[in-house]
Amino acid sequence: MMNSKTRNTWFDICALEDITPNTGVGAAIDDQLIALFRVGNEERVYALSNTDPFSNANVMSRGILGDIQGERVVASPIYKQHFSLATGRCLEDHEKKLLVYPVKLENGRVLVSSKPQKTYITHQAPQQEKMKLVLIGNGLAGMRCLEDLLDMAPDRYEVTVIGEEPWGNYNRIMLSPVLSGEKTIEDIMLHPPLWYVEQGIRFLGNDPAVYIDRTGKRVLTQSGHAVDYDRIILATGSRPFIPPVPGNDLKGVLSFRDIYDVNQMIEYSKYHKHAVVIGGGLLGLEAAWGLKRRGMQVTVLHLAHRLMNRQLDERAGQLLRTSIEAKGIDVITGAVTEEIRGEDGKVTGVLLQDGKVLNADLVVFAVGIRPNMALAEKSGLRCHRGVIVNDTMQTWDPAIYAVGECIEHRGETFGLVEPLWGQAFICATHLAEHGSLTFKSRPVPTQLKVSGVDVFSAGDFDPQDSDYEDIILNDEKRNIYKRIIVRKDKVIGAVLFGDTEDGAWYAELISDQTPVSSFRHKMLFGRDFALKSTNAA
User: Fold this and answer.
1) 38 with 16: CB under 8 angstroms?
2) Other C-beta atoms within 10 Å of 513: how many?
3) Quick one: DSSP state of residue 403?
4) Sheet holding 231-234: strands in order across?
5) Transmembrane region positions (predicted)?
6) φ/ψ of residue 493, rounded to 5
7) CA gap 87, 101 in Å, rounded
8) What are the pLDDT digits (tens) for 173-227?
9) Which of 88, 134, 199, 230 could form a disulfide with 100 if both were Cys (CB 3.0 to 4.6 A apart)?
10) How far apart are CA 257 and CA 238, in angstroms?
């Protein structure tokens, strides 16, 4: 492709119409190889370095364009890693990224600057005075949004972070390994207090926000700080649900949600023997495993008749129960907790509806979460099951955005990490004033390691009609179970236990509704075998 240099270091590459929608083209400017991408028929072009950082091959212009949780990406044609078109970051490996070059359109022509930027720009805007941004909530979703925003518009905002907990941002998902002794609190810290200082961010820890004065545009904190704002990211997360069981306020009754909870559980395990965990989902089982490894005798109570009933079918649930019990943890399903008993204000036992009494020095509730929308409600934002947001993550007040477990989007609330990343990115693009993307929620497969056992589920594994077929592998000796649910030559659900290597492929078949007749009889043996055999045939 021939390039002619224009003024102000801009290079005239080609006409916009020369780039076929949803494809890329390569260009060379100032001895730099650049890949340009056009998404659909939009009047916008993205420019990134053409060199795949994993293979060092100049192939990115031949990458496949797509969308992952609302984030526009290009997949390398060699190793298939995904790179954000907006920021160049690699979704699979944050140590790797592509350079991003400014692009502008003039009279139907695509112009690219030879000087890479932190993110894309579509025009040259005059220097603006910094706006005041307040992030309320110091958890995974809010901080991911802030990271993306700092990548896209590092000089746009003067940032204050208000956190309910005193420490920096940590990976809440990794609390289970901390409880079991496999990791320390320091190991799971993502942004220690020094990081905020280095970024020029004001951090108010151990001082929760108590009110948003939307008229005066100030956030008030518990200690009396008043923080002015132009924009807010509301990321207050969720609260553990504690059922109204008599005795739930006794000393020794805990949830499993934050560092405080983990520290108390570890302390109890040093001096007490009996623990009861109420809830047989992922969090409850991880709590039980951690306490068992700390030396306690643990019983898990679960209301449903199989463990992880929302993620696993009957057979997988039974296999999981057998595996959990083999580790020395007692399991009671169909268990209704009638009362938590105590003496002198401390837990002594748990009474079940059938009259059985369990000894307990510690009771841990892990029966679900609820969006934490108290601050939003008090401040007059529209809420229902969560803080209601639109497709750009704005609340009823356009100056206030919200992301994470506190929100409700199109009637849905969120508890898994993957959709939170999509929300964070969409929110960041709009705060960076590059807003054109919208958030779309998609079904998310569940792939987890529960107490050392791999489990996976996706799609509908409990169809209510009879118009479906099961394809099942049940290897009792190796403790492996696979079930693929098929309707009209398409996979609608999958449950895996013990071997989840091909879970992503089954999820892809469900999402794309791919006809499977040509390899149906080979599906249980995995993608490589099924497709290789099909291609060879």
Assistant:
1) yes
2) 12
3) -
4) 202-204, 157-162, 131-136, 231-234, 400-402
5) none
6) -165, 160
7) 10
8) 999 999 999 999 999 999 998 999 999 999 999 999 999 999 999 999 999 999 9
9) 88
10) 9
